[in-house]
């Protein structure tokens, strides 16, 4: 039987008001220990106010070869950006 | 460096894919774990990052040796924090290596049975407190020289690990300089100890950069892949140029009668270390190789019941939770 502790991906909220960000991974037997280890490995200098841990094999990722089909459709939709529209100066801030 | 003499692997890949891959690297686009990469790139990186990680871990031993005997409570707390950082560096790097498809346990086992190396520098002993100052100042100083450019390396996870590491290294070098400065400015006996530490650590520190790689095919490939950014000689020169004024400030003499400023080159000329000693240490015959590996093996074996126990507990708890659902 495999005796290696599972791999956990670690997400840390750096400051209040910010979202959690992926910072790296570590091995731990369970979620509780993963949080304790993440405290020691990733927040030794006040880098965080909150920690999320997710077992790595629970993460599904898009594959690099899907880059085209996934992201190219948005390239042709420039009207999604506000700068697409000319607004007359006279109407003021918008 | 922390990864010395990493052989890069030749690749037998589809030339079209290879050209596309190289174009990405030339354009400074990072390679991420799920992207296609040449087999040689993957293998060379596993070896390089693994060796770097092992160095961080084994590097805790010479300094850990003095934690209980630090001269003041403050120095003890500082050294403890520094050594803890090194454990963190090892972990960041192991994670980066694992994204290439090698497991943590495999890496550990390859260190423990001698299939993978760690930096030659950690096979030298720390005989007294002055050595701890010299290690922080010179050894971490040499490591920084190599690690700063590696922040720009082409493999995303490796680059991100190096960025975290570099943020923490400056503390390491400064605490070392501060400790040896205290001794260099102390009693004649303390000053003598500081000089003695300098004498013993100077050449092993120069060896950290590895032998001259002017003619090395491997380093040309690694540089094209941007997993090596500067030549060993460039970094060694930079280290010498930076360190000489720091030693002068302390009133310590660099143990090299041929060291002198070369106006024309705008650099210091200096003597090469004894490379036969370096190769001997790499082969396993340094003063502490046996001790270092024995200590790592003991820690791994003694910790087995804890690792197994915690895993069994976690599995039992998970099974219990599932049953309750
Ligand atoms: Fe380090
Ligand atoms: Fe360090």
- Overall pLDDT confidence of chain A: 92
State the helix count of chain B. 13
- For the termini of chain A, the CA-CA separation is 63 Å
What is the N-to-C order of secondary-structure elements of chain A (H for helix, E for strand)? EEHEH
* Sheet with most strands of chain A: 3 strands, antiparallel
Bin the strand percentage of chain A: 15-25%
What kind of sheet is the major sheet of chain B? 2 strands, antiparallel
| Proportion of beta-strand residues of chain B | under 5%
The general outline of chain A is elongated
In terms of quaternary structure, what is this? heterodimer
Number of contiguous helices of chain A: 2
Order of strands, widest sheet of chain A: 2-1-3
Identify the overall geometry of chain B. globular
EC number (chain A): 1.14.13.149
Pfam families (chain A): PaaB
Keywords (chain A): Oxidoreductase
Protein name (chain A): 1,2-phenylacetyl-CoA epoxidase subunit B
Structure overview:
The complex is a heterodimer of chains A (94) and B (325). Helix content of chain A is 22%, strand content 22%. Chain A is built from two helices and three strands. Chain A has helices at 31-42, 67-75; strands at 7-13, 20-27, 50-55. Chain A has a three-stranded antiparallel β-sheet with strand order 2-1-3, covered by helices on one side. The model of chain A has no long low-confidence stretch (mean pLDDT 92). Chain B has 325 residues and is mainly α. Chain B contains 13 helices and two strands; from the N terminus they run ααααααααααββααα. Chain B starts with 14 loop residues before the first helix and ends with a helix. The chains are: A alpha+beta (94), B mainly alpha (325). Chains A and B meet through strand 2 and helix 1 of A and helix 4, helix 7 and helix 13 of B. One fe (ii) ion is lined by residues 86, 140, 143, 169, 172 of chain B.
């Amino acid at each position: 039987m495999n005796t290696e502790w599972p791999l956990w991906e670690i997400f840390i909220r750096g400051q209040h008001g910010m979202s959690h960000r992926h910072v790296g991974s570590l091995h731990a037997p369970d979620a509780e220990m993963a949080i304790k280890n993440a405290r020691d490995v990733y927040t030794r200098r006040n880098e965080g106010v909150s920690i999320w841990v997710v077992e790595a094999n629970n993460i599904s990722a898009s594959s690099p070869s899907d880059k085209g089909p996934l992201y190219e459709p948005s390239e042709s939709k420039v009207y999604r950006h506000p700068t697409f529209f000319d607004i007359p100066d006279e109407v003021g801030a918008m | 460096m922390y990864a010395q003499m990493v052989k890069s692997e030749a690749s037998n890949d589809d030339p079209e894919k290879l050209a596309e891959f190289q174009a990405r690297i030339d354009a400074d686009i990072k390679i991420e774990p799920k992207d296609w990469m040449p087999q040689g790139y993957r293998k060379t990186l596993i070896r390089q990052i693994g060796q770097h990680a092992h160095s961080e871990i084994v590097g805790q031993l010479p300094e850990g040796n003095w934690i209980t005997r630090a001269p003041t409570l403050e120095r003890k707390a500082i050294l403890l924090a520094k050594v803890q950082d090194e454990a963190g560096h090892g972990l960041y790097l192991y994670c980066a290596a694992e994204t290439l498809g090698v497991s943590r346990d495999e890496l550990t086992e390859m260190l423990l049975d001698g299939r993978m190396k760690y930096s030659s520098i950690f096979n030298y002993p720390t005989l007294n407190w002055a050595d701890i100052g010299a290690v922080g100042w010179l050894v971490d100083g040499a490591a920084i020289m190599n690690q700063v450019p590696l922040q720009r390396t082409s493999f995303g996870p490796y680059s991100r690990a190096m960025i975290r590491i570099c943020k923490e290294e400056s503390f390491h070098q400064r605490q070392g300089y501060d400790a040896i400065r205290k001794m260099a400015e102390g009693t004649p006996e303390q000053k003598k100890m500081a000089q003695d530490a300098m004498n013993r650590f100077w050449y092993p520190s120069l060896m950290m950069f590895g032998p001259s790689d002017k003619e090395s095919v491997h380093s040309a490939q690694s540089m094209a892949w941007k997993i090596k950014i500067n030549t060993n000689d460039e970094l060694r020169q930079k280290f010498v140029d930076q360190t000489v004024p720091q030693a002068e400030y302390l009133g310590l003499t660099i143990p090299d009668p041929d060291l002198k400023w070369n106006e024309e080159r705008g650099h210091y000329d200096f003597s090469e270390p004894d490379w036969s000693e370096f190769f001997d240490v790499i082969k396993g015959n340094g003063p502490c190789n046996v001790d270092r590996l024995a200590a790592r093996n003991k820690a791994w074996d003694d910790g087995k019941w804890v690792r197994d126990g915690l895993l069994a507990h976690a599995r039992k708890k998970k099974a219990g939770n599932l049953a309750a659902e």
